[in-house]
Amino acid sequence: MTYITKPSFHHPNLPRNELGLTRRDYEGSMSTLCAGCGHDSVTAAIIEACFELNLPAHKVAKMSGIGCSSKTPTYFLLKSHGFNSVHGRMPSVATGANLANNELKYIGVSGDGDTASIGFGQFAHAVRRQVDMLYIVENNGTYGLTKGQFSATNDRISVGRKGQVNAFESIDLVSIAIQLGASFVARGFSGDKYQLVPLIKAALSHKGFAFIDVISPCVTFNNHGGSTKSFEFVRDHEHTVTGADYVPRREEITAAYPEGSVIDVTLHDESRVRLRKLDATYDPSDRAAALQYMMEHQAKDEVVTGLLYLNTGDTELKEKMDIVDVPLNSLKAADLRPSTEALEKINAGLR
Amino acid sequence: MTYITKPSFHHPNLPRNELGLTRRDYEGSMSTLCAGCGHDSVTAAIIEACFELNLPAHKVAKMSGIGCSSKTPTYFLLKSHGFNSVHGRMPSVATGANLANNELKYIGVSGDGDTASIGFGQFAHAVRRQVDMLYIVENNGTYGLTKGQFSATNDRISVGRKGQVNAFESIDLVSIAIQLGASFVARGFSGDKYQLVPLIKAALSHKGFAFIDVISPCVTFNNHGGSTKSFEFVRDHEHTVTGADYVPRREEITAAYPEGSVIDVTLHDESRVRLRKLDATYDPSDRAAALQYMMEHQAKDEVVTGLLYLNTGDTELKEKMDIVDVPLNSLKAADLRPSTEALEKINAGLR
Amino acid sequence: MRVNDFVIKFANVNGSGSASANAMFAKAVFRMGVPVAPKNIFPSNIQGLPTWFEVRVNDKGFLGRREGIDMMVAMNPQSWDEDVASILPGGYLLYDSTFIREIKRDDIKTIGVPLTKLCNERFTIPRERQLFKNVAYVGALTALLDMDFSVVEGMIAEQFRGKPKAVQPNIDALNLGREYALKYFDCPLDMRVARSDAVGDQILVEGNAAAGLGCVFAGATVAAWYPITPSTSVAEAFERYCNRLRVDPETKKKKFAIVQAEDELAAIGMAIGANWNGARAFTATSGPGISLMSEFLGLAYFAEVPVLLFNIQRGGPSTGMPTRTQQSDIISCAYASHGDTKHVLLFPSDPTEVFDFAIKGFDLSDRLQTPIIVMSDLDLGMNDWTTAPFKIDETTEFDRGKVLNARQLDEIKEFGRYLDVDGDGIPYRTYPGTHPEKGAFFTRGTSHDEYARYTEDGKVNERVMRRLSRKFDTAKTLLPGPVFGQVNQGATLGLIHFGTTAIAIPEAMELLAERKIHLDTMRVRAFPFSREVEDFIKSHEKVFVVEQNRDAQMRSLLVNECGIDPARLVPVLNFDGFPITAAAIADMVSEHLGQGERDQAQDGFAAE
Amino acid sequence: MRVNDFVIKFANVNGSGSASANAMFAKAVFRMGVPVAPKNIFPSNIQGLPTWFEVRVNDKGFLGRREGIDMMVAMNPQSWDEDVASILPGGYLLYDSTFIREIKRDDIKTIGVPLTKLCNERFTIPRERQLFKNVAYVGALTALLDMDFSVVEGMIAEQFRGKPKAVQPNIDALNLGREYALKYFDCPLDMRVARSDAVGDQILVEGNAAAGLGCVFAGATVAAWYPITPSTSVAEAFERYCNRLRVDPETKKKKFAIVQAEDELAAIGMAIGANWNGARAFTATSGPGISLMSEFLGLAYFAEVPVLLFNIQRGGPSTGMPTRTQQSDIISCAYASHGDTKHVLLFPSDPTEVFDFAIKGFDLSDRLQTPIIVMSDLDLGMNDWTTAPFKIDETTEFDRGKVLNARQLDEIKEFGRYLDVDGDGIPYRTYPGTHPEKGAFFTRGTSHDEYARYTEDGKVNERVMRRLSRKFDTAKTLLPGPVFGQVNQGATLGLIHFGTTAIAIPEAMELLAERKIHLDTMRVRAFPFSREVEDFIKSHEKVFVVEQNRDAQMRSLLVNECGIDPARLVPVLNFDGFPITAAAIADMVSEHLGQGERDQAQDGFAAE
Lengths: 351, 351, 608, 608
Ligand SMILES: Cc1ncc(C[n+]2csc(CCOP(=O)(O)OP(=O)(O)O)c2C)c(N)n1
Ligand SMILES: Cc1ncc(C[n+]2csc(CCOP(=O)(O)OP(=O)(O)O)c2C)c(N)n1
Ligand code: SF4
Ligand code: SF4
Ligand SMILES: [Mg+2]
Ligand SMILES: [Mg+2]
Hints:
Chain A is of the alpha/beta class. Chain A has helices at about 40-50, 70, 90-100, 110-120, 120-130, 175-180, 195-205, 230-235, 285-300, 315-320, 335, 340-350, and strands at about 60-65, 80-85, 105-110, 135-140, 140-145, 150, 185-190, 210-215, 240, 240-245, 260-265, 270-275, 305-310. In chain A, a hairpin with a 5-residue loop joins strand 5 and strand 6 (about 150). Chain C contains 20 helices and 23 strands.
């Protein structure tokens, strides 16, 4: 029996959010991942973000593929429906779910194997369709669940545990997402929840395809010296271009910043994300420039993090498709089934 | 019966190449495509290039997926083996074939549906593996063989025959190929064989993954006003950044050019490609810059053509994998089957 | 005299605009009240290759394919020889006499009409000259076959209601041919179309249109598909009808979503995601798509997510014969995906049934919480059929199956997604977002317990797998049962057929009766098979199973699932890509039966 | 006294380093000449969950799984209760007495060894303290079970030949446990390992290693795969052995290519491309991969491209039970892909046969020009088996089948890729680049004629399809035939088994014999089935078919393909994810047989 429920005892004075819920209410069952796995930190960040956003769990749907990372939806939001689909195919399932009911928030969790290899095609097309969801890749540069093979996101310089060299070009999911039109693209690090939580909150408030590539080290198979997805490497090579603060609706921004160093972007639910430019030259609204920036810094072995591209101007899938505002799954026979007369007309037209 | 052989009568004084072959020797069976289809022009360009390169047909393998474009290998190089695989899966078949015998030249022909939709994952991974082949996409922005649905390479501004709008971001295969590490990337136009033939010749002389995106209008389903893949649109919006001349080995370059306006690149078979820079600012050896350039010009609805990126420095698949020089399919039992003694040692080790 | 009983075939060049003219001819016959079966025999390319249009006209409603051509309209020099050769002795050859053609037969009657010449004189624009040739031979046919000209005129008027300018040239083109025929041949011939009331209130429609329309009436809101012949027109029809019937009059917004997916894996993934979320969603594909969808079919079977899939079968294996018909995906659909999986199949026989099964299919899929595959084929999907009008029962609600709402969740004491509460093997489900506290569960393709929790306890998984078998047994009681043909008391021989083979059966039985062979017939409409199917087989000594594939796949299913001795099931097969003919069935059956058996079949004594 | 006949089970926490210690124990028994069957029962995760290691020790070579534990080494508090419960009355419980544990049973003997305490005293580094606990209980076992300590010492020495510093701590750890046991318990127990020569020249190896090694000896040069449990170690073993045996001594370059593909569709695509080009290439996968590969399998079948595929079956359907064993992909592999397709399957029963079938498989695939699927499973693939040593026959050449070289092309008068020159349904092929003028052809999945040219002529395609059936019949004569067990003259009952079930059969037969039930047994080794298989079934009134799936899939194949009356085939099934036991087989068989039948089985009279 590999399913472990947590004791549901709540400490009486745990902090509660606007819904009167504690963080514990946003947890899932006990993680079965390796002690120290980066993925567990991402799970914690998701829990924190949902708690702070006061999300009702039943209005969230958790989607995933197959892998250690794809297991994590079991470890948060116990009261949300979840769908652990097949390897690499979560994007299509999420797209269908989204079309059926756009009132839920969709949190998709995938891995670098799940997304950059078997699921690359589905990922690319979910991006260009601007499916309204948060898509997180817990990127550890390896196939954790199948015991540590190279994944396609491995940088060319990285070396395997047993010294294997990686001759092939790596797939930078962030650049791909930007190029194919994702409207919210960020990179985080499982080791830095102060950066990650606001990114997740902003992404969940954004309408359209929000992609977060989280470098999430695999302590068991890819946290060694040669790895570029190890805690140490990321700490040493992280280059944060923008710091993002999340500002809930109706909340005042007090702190003052030097001229031109911050950008305030209002998100679809009227909350705002405040971007602190740590690199003055960087413009997170210019796709082409952002892409070039990624490439140049990656060439220097830097791991560029932060909110990298944001476009609140594009429409999301359902708008693009001119679908009625109410969820399609809420329409009843009366709305959907034409009359007998209508059918008779059709019959007549076929004579 | 839909297979039509051509009369094999050769006019006595047709020009012959170094192998004593005429262009007719490089033809295939009769095309069954629509009259005026761009794909037939690409076929003609391939025939011309192979004729001029003096390629022995039996040293070429023709690979394709499924589609009108994927049918074309039947229409050239009748004396080459061909493999018309399954929809979108040509890259994997070509990769396997390549590993088995790297002495053949591989010409892969695909369509935009075949490559950008169902085959996107395989395409991306063939690129990053640097499979040694020429990969041509006959890009018409539509699914010709299934009667004109939108394909993923359609620009956002393009409109369907019946006025359908294309709400989704388009996939620019050239940018994807550059980003994922293809070492030879070009775009041509089926309507311009003077540009296309040298590109194909250079690509066939290049070692590594050579990608040519050929805009090849579908006269039946996507050559109307709203299409950005029509003959007219491309003629009006073409922006050629580099002119490429192919210079066979041991041939003198005579013509003189203004300073800095040309780059000579020596290819793996010692032939050279002479790049005439039509846009002085453009540097076809800088990936990041090339990418940015594509994006900026595409944003202006320009169709950037020419040899867009060239890197003769990278190794190709077989080199990356340290495989012996002779083709693997030429190794005999003596080379491959260890001795009984070796097996006995293994048995001993298992006791 | 061949009145209302003949086969006429048009041989054209693909892309020359002949299709609409030929269809107009067929429709005209239909409007004269005579049952027709037009069949479009087209190449897998877009322009320039031979294409044929075969129309069987039969007052009795024998509309299965029939070999032998009574009249050939030979417009394609490429296929001229084989076209001429296929004409029955005494039959007619209508051709474009503008060109001299060698006709190697003296046992047929030739009708030369200088179509090109006539059109070149009357029309100037090249494309028009080309197109109107087709209209002109239809005109000639109206005279030769004694057809009601006003009917054809009426159709032209309808067709160009939008652009009146187009009407006259078409009428002229018709008259070019008609007048030439009246002038140079003594019309009508001994082969004619005579007004009849055999059509009654029937309609003329293709199966794929019926599928798309059925999905509209079934309340489907999401369609995800990937283009592939011959299934493409299912999604197209759904879109066409939705645009007509499902657009909000005020906002102009859509009460439906149609996604052209990036491939078949994505298409079924989307359909599954939407159904999981409580919207009715479907996909449509053909052979290669089925293979690609099999992984997801296994997930939907095991995770128990409803999904409706139309498989418009074409010639396999692999890419095979994309523009020909077969029934060769039966095994691959019934057992799609690795592991112990079984899927529910429906076998419609005509467009009306496709429409009904689309509606029924969604109810069954929701009720059984499992994929349902509607097994149509190219012949049914892409050809127009003379078929009963579509009907719905507005009084019935959709059956969404066992879905718990918030109130019910509050009432029950415990919710377990995979608990067999009712003993029928069908558990209860909830849609995401139903209740703030209760009813959430985790859908997964990994082994799980009754509460949808991951488990590696083999015994628990075994329990779940046994329940799935139980559910499959329940399905037998819910699926459309078999339909029986004429039943001669005491006949010891039976014949099983399904899908598009049905249309050939009455005629085949008549042919066999002439040979004193009598069989009971049963049309199977669904898999898994109901008791009645087993009983039918068991109550006959020998049962022929007619199918359009090489490996007798339906026979295999019958043997496997009903525990039948294969010796009693005789395969009657056709897999050349064309619909099986009544004559072929009759011949194979009588060939199999030695005289002895035939007698005994005849007077119904048991043998063996 | 239980000498060389017991089951010992280790209950550990996944990732705690117990695996190597447990394996060392099993290997030590093996080295004492006693047959062992270790089975690793692991979770689908990497660290922290319960994992078990079951070792059956049996002098007679009865190495199938057996229920009931004679000794439990209980190291995991999580699973403590179920572990203690699974001990047979009178059995032993060995546990870490550093911690107080409640033992609810009084019918077992407990042996407490304070492993944690002992290791904490001796070792300082936390990880060492953790790891050496495992080594320590092995030490204790050597004393308790009277094992030859020098054997274990020797293994330590071998294992750390590289790093001598590691040897002493391990020896110390062994002694910690050993000495404690000797001091506090009267060793040895009545349960022992005694030196024997039952092992003889056998080896201890896992099936996947045998597969990889077999491919090396078969001359495979290209492997394309995608990671999936339990098939991953096939590619890993191939790589390991290639690095040892296939690297050019001078250039250090590789005479092989191994590609980790982006998914299973690509993996088999690459293998097909390489085989098409004349290199021997294979792929390995499990359930979900099979579903994804089915489209390409259909192409290879129809275009007649050889390819070898290892299916290491796991618990299905869908993602199912990834770390459990089953034989449930039989139908999905035999008929993989849409349309009329059939595939050749091989069913190895032990690692030696996996090795042989890898070699034979390539010959057959080249000879038959069709995919061959080797149907292994997790139990065979990932567990070490006591099995006969690997042998090859260096004198034989590889059989590359009907491949024409340039000279032959010049000699023959015409080349048609799909011509049935020899009447066996197998055509001739050429590799690309063979001849400047002759032998080129176009491989395609679309319908084609005998010259590989695209055709839409249904009759031509039908001809090709019939030849493929003929080829499949030829296969029957080339595939490994069945192996027969003890044959009692006149027994009216038969039993069919295959794959990993074989190991349990001799023991099952012994159990049945005690109950006076005698059956003839036959082990099926390949599909399609040879005449002998049919004859065996036909010569017995009732035949039991033992398989590890829910739907009796092998039985279905037998019924379909041999035209057997299902009534005569009785399913004996197990699908809980664990290998079927001899006891289970014996019970299901005798339960099925009423007393009457049992007698008659016994003295061999016909009944019914
Ligand atoms: C179709 C299919 N192929 C292969 C597998 C085996 N498999 C399970 S997880 C996985 C890769 C996981 O890697 P990643 O997505 O990076 O997740 P991680 O474990 O690293 O978090 C694979 C190949 C599978 N479950 N299904
Ligand atoms: C698995 C599968 N799905 C769908 C099809 C149907 N199909 C044939 S060609 C094609 C698309 C062709 O488009 P493209 O690649 O752009 O080629 P084009 O005809 O435009 O040159 C499709 C969807 C198929 N043959 N196989
Ligand atoms: S194997 Fe790696 S990715 Fe998987 S749980 Fe362990 S640390 Fe995390
Ligand atoms: S349909 Fe379009 S792509 Fe296909 S042959 Fe015709 S013109 Fe070319
Ligand atoms: Mg990973
Ligand atoms: Mg196209």
